[in-house]
């Protein structure tokens, strides 16, 4: 029950300088869980409580986790594991209605789509709709080839190879492509 609340709160605040705050929140959650465990099992010792609720995995100790019926072990996520994503301001000269800024806004849209879960679902849907092929060259767009988003003449966004995108927009130069999300 706590994981969705932690994930939602951290995703909401991930655009500001919050790594230290996340660590503090993790510590406060840990203290509260320890109090809850001692209150729930007041006749048991600290060792029994730690063996029942806290485990070690991949070099991390004191991970609060419980055994579930179908998933195995369910771990409590840490707020400090959330990736901080800075907000990029739009350049003041940029005009979304001007033809010369179209490639700039395509880049921004592709990056923003990859940040959120709904954007990743949209990208996966576009990839499936295109049958995994680049709309410009017809070759397969796979994890190894990377991808870019491109807005065609009908103002529909499509997935293309970075090289194909560079041919359409030579003014972009070399930009870092993004991986296709795998589900």
Q: DSSP strand (E) fraction?
A: 5-15%
Task: Walk across the major sheet and give the strand order.
Answer: 1-2-3
Distance between the termini: 24 Å
Overall 3D shape: elongated
- The whole-angstrom Rg is 23 Å
Going by helix content, strand content and strand pairing, the class is alpha+beta
Strand tally is 5
Residue runs with pLDDT of under 50 for 5 or more positions: 179-183
What is the element string, with H for helices and E for strands? HHHEEEHHEEH
Main sheet makeup: 3 strands, antiparallel
Mean pLDDT across residues: 81
Helical run tally: 6
Share of helical residues: 40-55%
List the domain count as a whole number.
2
Concise synopsis of the structure shown:
The chain has 183 residues and is of the alpha+beta class. It has 2 domains: 2-81, no CATH class; 99-172, no CATH class. The protein has helices at 2-13, 19-40, 46-53, 102-115, 117-129, 162-168, and strands spanning 54-57, 60-68, 72-75, 148-151, 157-160.
């Amino acid at each position: 029950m706590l994981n969705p609340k932690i994930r939602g709160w951290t995703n909401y605040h991930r655009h500001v300088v919050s790594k230290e705050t996340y660590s503090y929140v993790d510590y406060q959650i840990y203290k509260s869980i320890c109090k809850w465990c001692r209150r729930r099992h007041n006749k048991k010792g600290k060792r029994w409580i730690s063996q029942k609720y806290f485990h070690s995995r991949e070099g991390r100790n004191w991970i609060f986790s419980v055994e579930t019926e179908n998933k195995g072990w369910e771990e409590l996520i840490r707020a400090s594991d959330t990736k901080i994503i800075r907000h990029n301001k739009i350049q003041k000269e940029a005009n979304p209605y001007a033809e010369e800024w179209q490639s700039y806004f395509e880049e921004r849209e592709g990056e923003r789509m990859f940040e959120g879960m709904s954007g990743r679902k949209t990208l996966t849907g576009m990839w499936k709709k295109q049958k995994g092929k680049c709309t410009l060259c017809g070759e397969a767009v796979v994890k190894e080839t990377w991808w870019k988003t491109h807005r065609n003449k009908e103002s529909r966004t499509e997935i293309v190879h970075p090289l194909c995108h560079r041919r359409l927009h030579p003014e972009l130069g070399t930009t870092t492509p993004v991986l296709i999300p795998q589900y």
